[in-house]
K Homology domain-containing protein
Amino acid sequence: MASQMAEGSSSGAKKTNAQLLKEKHEAMETHNPTVEDAEDEEDIEHPPRSSIISHPVDNGSMSEEAVGKRRVEVPPKRSTLLDTQSEELFPSLGGGSKPRAAAATAPAWGAKKPTQASRSAANGVHNGLWSGPPGASPLSSRASTPPAGVLTPASSSAINNAQSSRKGPMQMAMPGKYTDSITLVPAQMDKTRPIQPYLDKLNKKSRATVTRHIAGEGSSIVFEGSGPKKDVSEALRTIARDLCAKQKLHLPVPASCRAHIIGQGGNVIKDISARTGAKINVPKSDVPTNYQDDDDSATIDVEIEGDPYAVELARLEIDKIVSARTSRVNMRLKDIPPEFFPFLAGPHNAGIEAMERDRDLQIQVPHFHTWQHKPPPRVSGPDERPDFQPHPNLHVTISGERRAAQEARAQLEQQVEQLRRQLAVEEHSFQRGHHQFIIGERGMSLHDFLEETGCVVVLPPEHDDTEDITIIGPAEKLQTGVDRAATLAAEMQMANLDPRRYFTDALYGPDAHSRALSRYLQERQLEEEIENLYGAQLAFPPLSDPSVNWEIYSRDMKKSIQARSDLAKIIQAHPPAKLSLVEVDPFFHPYLQQQCLQTLRNEYGVNMIVPRDGESEHVILVCEGPEGTQSPFQIPRQRPSETDIASFQEALHQARDQLLSIIGDRPEVATSHVEVPRKFQEKLQKHIDREQKQTQQKFPVQIVLGEPHDGTRRQASNSGAPSSENEALLRGLSSDVADWEAKIMQFLEIAEKEEQERGYTTSFDFPTKFNGYLIGREGAKIKELREQFDVDIRMLDDGKIEVQGPKAKADACKDHIIGLRKKFEDEATYILKIEPRFHGQLVGKKGADVNRLQDKYNVKIQFPQSSNAQDDQSSADAASDAGPRRPARSNQAQDEVVVRGPRQGAEKARTEILDLYQYAKDNSHSATISVARQHLGSLIGQRGSEIDRLRLETGAQIDFPDRQENADPKAHAEIVIKGTKQAVDAAKAEIQKRVKSLDDTVNRSLDIDRRYHGSLIGAQGANIRRIVVEAGGPEQSHQVVKFPERGSESSTIRIEGSERVVAQVAAAIEKFVLDQEKQTTDSIDVPAEKHGQLIGPRGEAKRNLEQQFNVSIEIPKKGSDRTDIKLTGAQEDVAKARGYLATLADQRKEGETIDMPRHLHHAISANGKLFRRLRQDHDVTVDHGSAKPPPKQQPGSSSSQPRTNGSAGAPLITDEDSADAHSWIIIPAAGMGEGGDGSTIPWNLSGPSAEKVAAAKERVLKALETASKPSATGYLTLSDPRYHRFVIGPGGRNINSIRERTGCTIQVPNARAGKGGEDGEAIEIVGSLAGCEQAKEMVLECVRTGAARG
């Protein structure tokens, strides 16, 4: 058509080259096919909405054949210009047509209710397009409206798609050619700048071509650009920036989305500003963090500033973030009175369940049948409507998919309006004890009452003394509810019991004693006991009730009478002598509760009841006796005797004195009221907490600040409460109260001064990469800094930190953060290659191990999110206050673990992680062995001895399967071995070896009389070991022969092993038993002095005789006065042994007696060593007859020995633990023979011949002569008692050599079998001064030589 018009206008004249080229271009524009013209297969199968709209077609210029080949329905031709006023294409921009009406639904957030305009489109989206008024934000009805005409830039593809749904032909675009436009109204434009010259200049500079034309009756100016996409967008953005004035848009968003809009370190908001050119300001949220998390109705206003183009682009970007984060919402409905809750929920929550059905929605309605904050409204006349008010802390919550939550909220608000018009209230008075039987656990459920009557009952709280209950419901159903409540109350029979008549002689009066007893029995849960025993309910009178009667309620009068009789017995069992009241100022009550309760109960058997707040000043003491500590405690019902009463009074008297002594001499308690402005109270409370924690006073001052912030009043306490929100109540010892008054006034003076300086602000550079370190996990570190310095810390977008507060504190905080920055600048990042299968072990359960490393080294450790450690790592990563938990790097490989932090900490964390990784790798080897279940017991061993030994030898972890009752013994079970490769291989080989042996094992059982078991086993298992070894079995005889356990009545001996070994062992055991049955027992008298000769050193002589004659010898214990020795064995063997012992008994020994000075007894005998030498060398024994040896003098106990470090022991070794470290003290003495009191002890020497006795006597006398000479005693303490073995040497060779060469007596502490040899015990050397010194040097040389050899 364009070419035809050109031809008509030329009137046949010759065309220039320019005209011909123009015609060519116009002809090309008439048909400009693109890739978009090709029909998508998906569109053929599922055609879009616009493609199925029928439009008339003009086929006038087409042939019949062409008409038959084309679709009949095609869009009619239209202008190629984009209709920028179309509300369908640009629903949120420009001055379009009137929006279509939508269902009235509450907005997803925003405290204000929607206006009429926003009610028509409260849900915000219609068929995917915003259906709100022009310029309104899709976020909320509170959004400020941008100037009309601000358009969202539309791309060519968007234009084509939009026009396909409208009448007219589709615009064709050449490949690479992009068209976009914006529409502006004159009011937005700078009238001082001419438009056309500006466009001409712009077109010369840009690769895009921008034209303008007037659109619509509003004289809006459309700027349309064509050319490369990037250039077109830049040109249109430049026009909006240069030709339009700046504008601001206040965009309300949920407070919970604030962090996501900002992003970590501000990266998200910076990116939006850079791409759109708009300035975005996100204010600080005043909503608490925990409140943000569960309530999306709280909003903040995001301010967007810039040209219309930039503002709209930024708004769309923020809208995307909000939409992604608020597809699910949490809402609190705070304007609903709690009296409406049961009606909204419906009987048994039927109403809520109906709303939730088939929706992704959850509605929580609090249970309400007792008022706490204030009673339900009262009405003065029948025509007056009750004024129901919401509760500050009880709210209906809705959570779920946003649209469903909006609809549920609108539905609930509509129901609330209906309930306000329908509900009426009536108050009726019922006896207080009957309330519990109307509604509650002991009465009818609120749901059943509502279902039956259509009404609800609201009861008063326990702390209120009113008897009125409120029935709420529709006016026509109210009487039904009243009647039903009266019926429920009347069903209970009530009986009274007046305890006062039992306490007419009470010291504190019947009323006081009755109330004290009631309080005590409440503490001992008497109500529950009566209910369990009789099915009756016991009600004690409240403190505010002037009556002290106990009330018993029951539906069965007989049970009520029985309960009353039992209560009378309990009263009589608690006479006035069993209770005592102690008047104590309530200020001390918390301290007594904490410090005295257990003391009085354990020491005196007295239970102490401290009054609750507002009850009384009297502390109740009840004597319970030892039964008071028993569990469960039984309340006594027996009248006490006179003796019991006297013991009660004594115990109460002592407990009272103890209690008052703890408090002191009745210190004066004072109360003071101090004016504290509300704005300083939180800060003052923290200051008070810190001060009192540091001082640790016995009776800290009680300080109560203002009233609760939720508007409710505190329950009155004995200590009182502030009378206003700007007041602090101080109560405590008068001197402490005066001190705290001064401290608070000083604090307020400083706080007022600092408040005037709080506007001071300082800022400084702080790299954003360190923000995470400064903020800490969940903001913990920056919160700590704010509290520590009492300043506000803000992280700005330009890599700066702003600190605001009093100048001194702000500067101090700045210096502190700069110091942290220097520390953070020394940051290092390590990427560790770790196999993903080990990530879980390194992270630990719920991130415990990785959190430990992060806290220990102050670093961040990031594991790949898609690894098995994802859940654990999510709990380990720290979060900033500007974004979600820090994710893993986008390019982080699955085998990479990133460690980032201060260089030193990161290096240590890296080393520890790699060590843990290497350990996990080294111990990741495993093997599985399948064995028959019947072999598990043998592999494990008795009490796990075999498997424990194998674990110790190989170092492997060996896990056996659990034992299964009635399991098939031939069934197989798996043994799992874990550890290093070497350990696993060793354990596996050993187990397989044992299993193979067990597979070839045979079992045999022998029934042997238990009386033979001991002799069969032999001393320390010697006999059975000999039998097994001789049969070819192992040294560990218990692996082959298994005796019954001790205490068992079984007599069966089990034998396991190879067939040959089992047969030989069984034969040997049977032969042994047969021999035992043939044995005989005989006895012979042998003088007691010769028993020691028969026993020998450590029983050696006795064992030799038993082996020599093949008999068992039983010798009486020393001191038993018995001389008979039993012989057991074969008859001929017993006869031979008896003959030998008879010869020994008849043999007469030669003897001599030496009177030994008692004080030299131990020195000469060398603690028994001399006796052993005489017996070994001369066959001479020494005894003392009936005389008792003197007590042994401990080394260092002599008064002549110097004391070191205040002790009488040898000197302490403070040198390092080495062979040369020692302590040496030598004490000269005039002569050991000069001491003592002259008393002696006989040494009776006896031996087989006079010659041997004479030689022994000569040796003793020589030792006596040496000990009597002037001598010295040296004490040599080594650094380690283990060195003593080097002094003694093999077989005593070293010490004997030293004794012979020096002539000294040397005693080394005996460390044999764990006796002696403790740290600090000295080697005692007795002899001449020179000999002692020589012996010391020789001892040290032995130690050095032995230590060098190891």
